[in-house]
Write a structure and sequence with these properties.
Length: about 325
């Protein structure tokens, strides 16, 4: 069984709304990409076949992937003001649920929250898990520049913890990237930075201390978090501010979190396997933007039992989809 935890909703209405609202410029490439640009960087991009759901199912069949968890990529719904966020979140969650209904054994949905309005986010959580039947939540690494450990989000974390929902965190562009406006550095490096910073803040601020059942899954194998755990632990040992809200080393909290395989790099995945173990790794392809197959996990020199956990066992457990997967 192979469940892809890192796959994205690609929705024409959302793309058109984003281009108009954000004033993005359009650039076509010889390889068939449509790049939506802000200044000297790509804000979002697509190929026309990404909107074809049946083609995506055929691609899954060709790659031996049984199910994909669909979530909205950057910038999620956070580009809009609070009132419009509510409308955009409802629209994209409805679209995600429709994709799941079209292929209920092949897709599972992760909904987006209009986090500029906490009350509306709590209401949408209820609608997502009730009326729409979505399996979890997709969030960004910052919400319009507001860090995830901001106290305003506490009611959301409490509700998610009470519902025991899985959360898939996808990086957003970090704030203040004016000095990175070349070589797509906000995408290539900024994403890694923002995930790493977001989770370090969440650990130090005690979110995972207060909500130990929080099923928090990070894209791109957690950015650089696992590389800097000893630095974070040393912060706890040396500085009072770094142990103000927690009573254990940061590495202990990190060991209870979850990481996808979308670093795609064997040595990095083996490091993650050595630090957090197979029980905390989940297969991902970043479909359709990267659209990898399973070869980056197949090639790992680990046991068949560990691969089974990574490929599907862990995701089935976290998303509560055991028995729903099939081709």
């Amino acid at each position: 069984m192979k469940i892809d935890i890192h796959a994205h909703v690609v929705n024409r209405r959302y793309v058109d709304e984003l281009v108009t609202h954000a004033g993005l410029s359009i650039q076509k490439t010889a390889s068939g990409q449509t790049l939506m640009r802000r200044g000297n960087r790509t804000f979002l991009w697509y190929r026309d076949n990404m909107f074809d759901l049946e083609a995506r199912v055929r691609d899954m069949d060709a790659k031996g992937i049984d199910m994909r968890a669909l979530s909205l990529s950057t910038p999620n719904v956070y580009e809009w003001d609070a009132a419009r966020q509510i409308e955009i979140a409802r629209d994209i969650n409805d679209a995600t649920a429709a994709m799941v209904r079209a292929h209920p054994t092949r897709f599972v949905g992760l909904g987006s929250l209009p986090l500029a309005d906490i009350g509306a986010s709590l209401s949408e959580l209820d609608r997502m898990t009730g009326e729409l039947g979505l399996a979890g939540v997709a969030i960004g690494s910052n919400v319009g520049g507001v860090p995830l450990n901001d106290p305003r989000f506490e009611p959301v974390w409490a509700r998610i913890d009470a519902l025991e929902l899985a959360v898939f965190e996808h990086p957003m562009f970090p704030t203040h990237t004016e000095d990175m406006e070349e070589f797509e550095l906000p995408l290539r490096v900024g994403f890694v930075y923002d995930t790493t910073t977001a989770v370090a803040r969440m650990i130090y601020s005690g979110i995972f201390e207060r909500y130990p059942r929080f099923k928090y899954i990070m894209a791109h194998t957690g950015g650089a978090l696992l590389m800097i755990l000893e630095r974070l632990d040393n912060g706890y040992r040396i500085f009072p501010d770094c142990r103000k809200y927690i009573n254990r080393l940061p590495s202990e909290y990190a060991g209870h979190l979850y990481y996808d395989t979308c670093s795609f790099y064997g040595p990095a995945l083996m490091m993650a396997h050595g630090i957090v173990g197979a029980d905390h790794l989940l297969f991902g392809t970043d479909d359709p933007f990267i659209g990898s197959d399973s070869s980056h996990v197949d090639a790992l020199p680990i046991s068949a039992e560990d691969k089974a956990k990574i490929f599907g066992g862990n995701a089935a457990r976290l998303l509560n989809v055991s028995g729903k997967v099939g081709r």
